Amino acid sequence: xxxxxxxxxxxxxxxxxxxxxxxxxxxxxxxxxxxxxxxxxxxxxxxxxxxxxxxxxxxxxxxxxxxxxxxxxxxxxxxxxxxxxxxxxxxxxxxxxxxxxxxxxxxxxxxxxxxxxxxxxxxxxxxxxxxxxxxxxxxxxxxxxxxxxxxxxxxxxxxxxxxxxxxxxxxxxxxxxxxxxxxxxxxxxxxxxxxxxxxxxxxxxxxxxxxxxxxxxxxxxxxxxxxxxxxxxxxxxxxxxxxxxxxxxxxxxxxxxxxxxxxxxxxxxxxxxxxxxxxxxxxxxxxxxxxxxxxxxxxxxxxxxxxxxxxxxxxxxxxxxxxxxxxxxxxxxxxxxxxxxxxxxxxxxxxxxxxxxxxxxxxxxxxxxxxxxxxxxxx
Length: 379
Prior knowledge:
Layout: E1 2-6, H1 7-17, E2 32-38, E3 41-47, E4 51-57, E5 60-63, E6 65-70, H2 71-79, E7 85-91, E8 94-99, E9 102-106, E10 124-129, H3 130-140, E11 155-161, E12 168-174, E13 178-184, E14 193-198, H4 199-211, E15 221-227, E16 230-235, E17 238-243, E18 262-267, H5 268-279, E19 288-294, E20 299-306, E21 310-317, E22 319-322, E23 325-330, H6 331-340, E24 345-350, E25 357-361, E26 368-374
């Protein structure tokens, strides 16, 4: 194997593939990235047996071949090279890398031990604008469950709807304590299709979009292909293959309230600052914060008290309509939802102390809907 490429292109490819490789004592080869040089360029392939990422880097090929080197070591080394041409040459005793005055030899493992990553051809294909998918992921990923006792909740459910009022793509995630749902109006053909994609896969996808964020040549769309128990994301020179999560996602729509007795419209940053202040005095492990709404005074009062640390009470002015109300919620869940809101003002809908609280953007957004539901802490 012998080829040349730019440091910028190689570094970008390794930034995408190096994070998938996980430390594995039983299978050391999974710590490595596979370098495969052929007529199509230099392919960088990494996998953890659940996710596989292939990134093609443009380069000048002199001799075909393949080899695996430690993923993190190679990425850290290339990251420190000057912005010049990188010459890669495979010898019997390792991989030779030259760039400017820097010369090194990296020991690796034979590519014959690297797991086979078979090509996946999806039966269904959807095209989604990258900016929409990236924004949608940032608003739902944090709500996935971390506990493996219910595997389906550790992923995000994608619903592709080809007809009806909700024609487009819906993403939803819940850990049974809170729920985030975003709707994107995009062109979708055919009948409704649902698939649960692991949170780790989507985190890698979101990070990949971040790597290409400032690249003017980056594609505007990502192609999503669904196959049997697998999903493929194709984005320019990158292909991400992942298993999907089997099982039935809970019918979360039934817990979303259709009515409310009290509604509040308030500046998102003002409310977040007040919650952070009150949270310093919430009970450890319970993370509770008491919210009292007074429609007469047009105020909401946030309070928290802990026998060992003291108490805190903050009153904020807001647009309040409906009945006087009170609810106790987990402040961390509240802050997560507020941080994900795409508008400066938010609308909070409350029924009573025992019913879920709904938070939505105060202003209508074109071609997009978002709602965040938090279960109350019952006393």
